[in-house]
Amino acid sequence: GAGVSQSPSNKVTEKGKDVELRCDPISGHTALYWYRQSLGQGLEFLIYFQGNSAPDKSGLPSDRFSAERTGGSVSTLTIQRTQQEDSAVYLCASSLGWGEGYILLHFGNGTRLTVT
Amino acid sequence: DQQVKQNSPSLSVQEGRISILNCDYTNSMFDYFLWYKKYPAEGPTFLISISSIKDKNEDGRFTVFLNKSAKHLSLHIVPSQPGDSAVYFCAASARGSNYKLTFGKGTLLTVNP
Question: Residue B74: which of B5, B3, B12 has the closest Cα?
């Protein structure tokens, strides 16, 4: 596929459990982002990866959140000990990472996380 | 502290008429602005952008206007079509941090046939 792929599309978990969300960016895109959209809110920046540089984790809301990107491609966002306020749609995006393509983000369809 | 504000959560217009979606920002360091469109259960898709060195950018039925002194931008859709019904997000990036987009909360546009 040519687009950003995210899995699962929906995830329901119990409070206190850990979850992993996966993102496959567009081939050739060096930059990868995670955003989340809580109910009634805009898109909130979480983390940014660019090539081999250290990721910008400044948007992660707590130390329960972590993300990694293996081989400069696939990324996994992990939320430990989930809380009800973590319920949101988690969106992954990728971009060319250079020139005007730097900030033309291409989004996946998101993972809707519900913590019960 | 919301740096990008879309004060109208929803807008309804008749097919064929003009849709005007508004966005205000507070950060004077923002120098690039984008509009994204989002359909239900899909990710946002890029629609149109504008650099702070311009005050207008046009692409087919879509035009974005930027008023830097007022820290305000608007998206005009003419003529509006039912397929334009979606949530529209305004986003901005700042000098020195141009990889990090700050988004508004979105405006739900409904175009009635």
Answer: B5
CB contact under 8 A, B46 and A104: yes
pLDDT digits (tens, 9 = 90+) for A28-54: 888 999 999 998 888 999 999 988 888
Does residue A50 sit at the B interface (CB-CB below 8 Å)? yes
Q: E strands of chain B, at which residues?
A: 4-5, 10-14, 19-25, 30-38, 45-51, 56-59, 62-67, 72-77, 86-94, 97-103, 107-112
Give the C-alpha separation, A20 to A98, whole Å.
Answer: 29
Chain A's closest residue to B9, CA to CA, is: A40
Q: Between A31, A95, A108, which is nearest B43 by CB?
A: A108
- Which residues of A fall within a CB distance of 8 Å from B54? none
Q: Name the token pair of B96.
A: 């020195």
CB atoms within 10 A of CB A81: 11
Nearest to B103 among A42, A102, A110 (CB): A42
In chain A, which residues have pLDDT < 70? 1, 98-102
Partner residue facing B99 (CB), from A41, A44, A103: A103
Alpha carbon of residue B99 to chain centroid: 18
By DSSP bridging, strand A10-13 and strand A111-115 are parallel
Given an 8 Å threshold on Cβ–Cβ distance, is A106 in contact with B46? yes
